[in-house]
């Protein structure tokens, strides 16, 4: 988040307003105006593209874990909260 993360929320809003007053300054610093701000519609969307790091393929025992260890996978799946969160966000299929 860069320099803006060092501020309290109130100071952050003031800093963002000041940063947005200079054209392109907010995008250059990685600052984002608060939701609903008129500046949000005018601010350019900037997505930095970074080089990919090294890649190491996973060992074979990691592949198809849900098939090789169904009990452990079900325990993980129930405990991670993913299904509950998806239900909360999307509801049941066909709703």
Overview features:
49% helix; mainly alpha; single chain; 95 residues
Provide a descriptive summary of the structure in words.
The chain has 2 domains: 2-42, no CATH class; 60-90, no CATH class. The protein has 6 helices and no strands. The chain has helices at residues 9-21, 25-29, 38-42, 65-68, 70-80, 82-90. The two termini are 38 Å apart.
Main beta sheet, described? Answer: none
| Helix count from the secondary structure assignment | 6
Spatial extent as radius of gyration: 22 Å
Which geometry do the CA atoms define? elongated
- In total, how many beta strands? 0
Q: Roughly how many Å apart are the termini?
A: 38 Å
Q: Roughly what percent helix?
A: 40-55%
In short:
The chain is mainly α and 95 residues long. It is 49% helix and 0% strand.
Strand and helix map with partners:
Layout: H1 9-21, H2 25-29, H3 38-42, H4 65-68, H5 70-80, H6 82-90
């Amino acid at each position: 988040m860069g320099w803006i993360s060092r501020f309290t929320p109130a100071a952050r809003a003031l800093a963002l307003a000041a940063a947005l007053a200079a054209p392109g300054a907010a995008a250059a610093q990685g600052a984002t105006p608060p939701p609903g701000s008129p500046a949000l519609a005018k601010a350019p969307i900037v997505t930095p593209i970074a080089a990919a790091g090294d890649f190491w393929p996973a060992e074979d025992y990691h592949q198809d874990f849900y098939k090789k260890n169904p009990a452990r996978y079900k325990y993980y799946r129930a405990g991670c909260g993913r299904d509950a969160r998806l239900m909360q966000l999307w509801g049941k299929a066909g709703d």
